[in-house]
Amino acid sequence: MICIIAFVVFAVMAIFSANYRPLAAEAFDCVFRKMTFRKCKTRLDERIKSKITGKLMGHTPKGAAFVFKRFEILSWIFVIVTIVSLAYSGYSTYNYIQYGNCYGPEVTGGFCIYNALEGEKFTELQKKIEGETILPDADDDPAIGLEDAKVTMIEFGCYSCPHTREAQQIVREVVSQYKDRIKFVFRDFPIEQIYGDAFLHAEAANCALEQDMFWEMHELIFTEQEVCGEEVHPEDHIEDAAKRIGLNMKEFKKCMKEHRYKEEIEKDFNDGLKAGVSGTPTFFINGRRIIGPKPIKAFQKIIDEELEKAGEI
Amino acid sequence: MGLNPEKLRKDFPILDTKVKGRPIIYMDSACQTLRPIQVINKINEYYNEYPVCGDRSQHKLGKRVDEEIAKARKIFRKFFNAKHSEEFIFTKNTTESINIIANALKFKPGDAVLCSDKEHNSNLLQWQIKKDIKHNIFEFGNIEDFKSKLTKNTRLVSVVHTSNMDGTSNPIKEMIKIAHDNESLVLIDGAQSAPHREINLKKLDADFFACSGHKMLGPSGTGLLFGKKEQLENLNPFLVGGGTVEESTYTTHHWEPLPNRIEPGLQNYAGIIGLGEAVHYLDKIRLKNIQKHEANLNKKATDALGDVVDLISKDQERAGIFSFNIKNLTPHNIAIMLDNSANIMIRSGAHCVHSWFNKHNMTGSARASFYFYNTEEEIDIFIEEIKKLRKHLT
Q1: Which of A99, A131, A147 marks a domain boundary?
Q2: Closest CB from B330, B338, B391 relative to A54
Q3: How far is it, in rounded angstroms, from Cα A178 to Cα A183?
Q4: Domain hosting residue A74, numbered range
C-alpha cells in the first residue's frame, strides 16, 4: 500500500525534478502490480519499510518495532489519509476559485462568508456582481493616514464578524507603523445572513461619523462585540456605547431612526461585491487582495512592495 | 609487527565523512574496497602530468606512461611472486579475465570444465553457454568430491579460491596439484583472495589467476589476468586490434609478443598505474597482517553474534566476510536498516552466487565484509545494531 503514497509523492516531485521520475515510474509499476494482485517486483515497498524502520531504530527501537510489525496497516491508514487529504485539497481549491476562500460558502473559519447565491437584503445587487471585477476605491469612507498617500489599504469589514474583530489588532499595528505613508479606509460589508445586527452596527458607526466620532464607535463596537447580543440587546448596547463616547444622543438617535446611511452602507457592500469580496475581513492594498486576518508580515510585505513601486522607499 | 588501523585510516579521505553527525562504517569491502589517498593521487598524477597514450608514442610524455606501466607490472610480479612481468594481462575485472580464458583457451569437443558449486556468476555463465564442452560441478571445499569429478576429459579446473559469499576457501594448493597430476589446467578466481591473503604464484603453480583491482584498493574497472607464459602464448586470439600486432597487411598479421598481444586497444593507463600504487600500498602493509586483523574482527563478530544470527558458514576461517541472515527479516531489510540506523554499509542479496542459494532454497544473505581499515569499535557498533534488530523486529 505504501507504493500508492510513494507514487503520489514521487509523481508530484517528478514535476519539479527529473531525478524523481524513475522513482515515480517504479512506484507506478509497484501500484499496478499490487492492483493486479501480484508482488511488487522492485521491492520498493520493502525498501521504504526498511528505510523508515532503520531511521526510527536510530532513535527509538520500540517505535521502529511498532512500525515494522504494523507497516501494512499503517500504510493503509496513510493511503486513506492521503486520499481524503487530496479530496479536501481539491474541494478547497474549488472553493478558492469559486468563493475566494478555502472554506466554501457554508462554512466559516478565519473568514466570515457571504453567500451571494442565497440572496438577502441586497437582492437587487446580485445582478451587478455578474461581470468584470472592479477594484474598490476609498470612496468617501472614513480614513486614517496620509490623505494623498500612494498606497491605500481598504478593509471591507463586518462589525459583527469575529474574524473582522480579530483582524483589528493587526490593522492597528499596520496603521501605527505606516500612518505617515499610507491611507487606511474602512468600508462596510455587513453580513446579515449570519449576523442579524451587522447592519445596525454599521449604521451606528456611520451616525457617529457625523459627529466626528467614527473611530471611537468603531473601536468600541469591536471591543464589546462578544457582549453585544449575548448579554445586552444590540440596540440598547449601541445607545449605551454612543452615550459612553459622548455623542449628542438626540442627533444620534434621529440618525439611526431615519436610517440615514442605509444607502451609503449598501453602496459599500455593492462595491465590495463588485470587487469580488465574498466575506470579511477582506483587504485591498493598492488592489492586491488579502483575505482573512493574516499575520502582519503578509501586510508588511505587500505595503513595502507597493511603497517601493511608488518610490516611497 | 601488526597493522595499526587507526593510522592507516588517515590515508582514506572517505572515512572522514559523516552522515547526520555520525561517521560512516564501511563493511562492503568484498564488493569494492575504499581507496587510499596515495592511489587517488597516483591517478591524478597521470591525468595532470602525462595523460597520453602508452606503448605507441615516442614523445617524452608517452615514454613516461610506458615507464609507469612497466613499473606497475613489476609491482604485480613481485606482489604475486610470478616469474615474469609480462605474465600479467590488464583487464577490466576478474569477470573479463575469466571470459578471456573461456574464449581463448583451446578446447576440443568433449572437453570438460570443473567448477565448484559456490562459483560467482563470473565463473559459471561462461561454461554454461559454451558449446561442445561439459560443465561439471563439485562440492566447494570437498577434496574427495573434487577428485571424483575430475576426469581425463577435464581440460580446465576453473575454481574460486575464496568465496565472496561466505569467505570460506577451497584447499587450492592441493587441488592444483591433483589437477596437474590429471593433466588439467587450473584457473583460479582470486577476486576475494588476492586482497586478503598472500598469493605466491610460483608456489601455487596455477596456470591462470584472475583478480580485480577494485577489491584491492585499486581504481574501478581494473583487473588482472595472470597466465603462465607458455599458456598465454598458446591461447587463441580472442580480443584483437590496435596494439596486438607488430604489423599487418590486408590478409596477414604478425602478433606482438606478450603481454601486448592479449591487451587490445588503448588501455586504462590511469587505472593500471593506480592499481600499481594500490598493490604497492598493500605490499607495504603486508598481507599477513591484513589477514590476521580481519580474522580478529570476524572472530569478535562471530563470538558475539553466533547465536543471534544464522551464519551462512560456521567455518572458522572466513577471511573478513561475515555472511548471515536474521529470522523474519530479508537480507535487504537488514542492509537498509543498518544503513539508516547507524550508517553501517553492508551488502545484501545473492552476491552473484544465485546458483548456490537456489540449491539451498535461500534468497540470499546479508554480508558484512571487513578490511584492514575497520576497527574493533566499528565491530562493536555493528554487533549492537544487529542485536537491536534481532531483539525488536523478530
Answers
A1: A99
A2: B338
A3: 8
A4: 2-99
